[in-house]
Amino acid sequence: MDEWFDFTLKVNINSLFCSSVDFVQEVQETSLKMENNATTEILKSTKPSILKEEAIAERKWVKLEQTTYVDPSGKTRIWETVKRTTKKEDSSADGVSVIPVLQRTLHYDCIVLVKQFRPPMGGYCLEFPAGLIEGNESPESAALRELEEETGYKGDVVECSPAVCLDPGLTNCTTHIVTVTINGDDACNTRPMQKPEEGEFVEVISLPKNDLLQRIEELVAEDHILVDARVYAYALALKHATQKPLQVPFMKF
Asked: Nudix hydrolase domain location, by residue (predicted)?
């Protein structure tokens, strides 16, 4: 009889403990939902908007503006914004970034990159071929032109992204990312000749696509160059897409 009483008591205590834990957890979840809902309502109360943009300084290629805007809480704030002076009003973006895939018989596909000295960085950078959209050019036409100017290769457009931002905390600059295939067996691409603009010094570097990230990191270690974020993100995405997914350890209780 005593054993049965002890057993029943333990069951009731455990049930009470579990119920208390569940109750506390439910209260915490409800409180968190209320806080999130309150935050959402505050954010919905005011739509962020630009009040005015005032010029601070302007040169040939870029200008600095003071942007006055209203944040989601309704408070007026000031932001310093860098803009290009070259973008046409009807242009969908400031420029293009080209992902050139060099394809040759009996060779691994390669990504064609360019290395050039960048004064703002004070050193050499590894980048995709890129440039500004000129006149009434389409993004695709600008991409093929820039590719030939910087690398000498002639290619075919595979796809073109919508306009994407580059550094939205600093500038309103946008670009189209254009994927281009290069037929390396074509006579025009066996000995490509660059067509650089005045003051443009570009070194062409082709790296195997299937080992892109490792080859980039080797270049960084050997030449102490900086890598454009778009290039590194692309190489990292290739690695993530081809390697075995990360194993999440099982929790032990």
From this structure: 91-240
In 45-148, at which residue ranges do the beta strands (DSSP E only) sit?
49-58, 62-70, 76-84, 95-103, 110-118, 123-127, 130-132
Six-digit token string for 16: 């009470």
Nearest alpha carbon to residue 173 among 78, 96, 66: 96
Among residues 135, 137, 133, 61, the alpha carbon closest in space to that of 97 is found at 133
- Cα–Cα nearest to 217, from 231, 199, 198: 231
How far apart CA 14 and CA 175 sit, in angstroms, is 62
Strand partners, 117: 124
Domain spans in the chain, listed from the N-terminal domain onward: 49-84, 95-208
Architecture per CATH, 95-208: Alpha-Beta Complex (3.90)
Question: Measuring CA to CA, which residue among 162, 168, 169 is closest to residue 92?
Answer: 162
CA pair distance 66, 80, nearest whole angstrom: 5
Distance from C-alpha of 146 to C-alpha of 134, rounded to nearest angstrom: 11
Q: pLDDT digits over 129-183, tens only?
A: 999 999 889 999 999 999 999 999 999 999 999 999 999 999 999 999 999 999 9
Give the type of residue at 42. I
Ranges 2-6, 30-34, 109-113, 238-242, most confident: 109-113
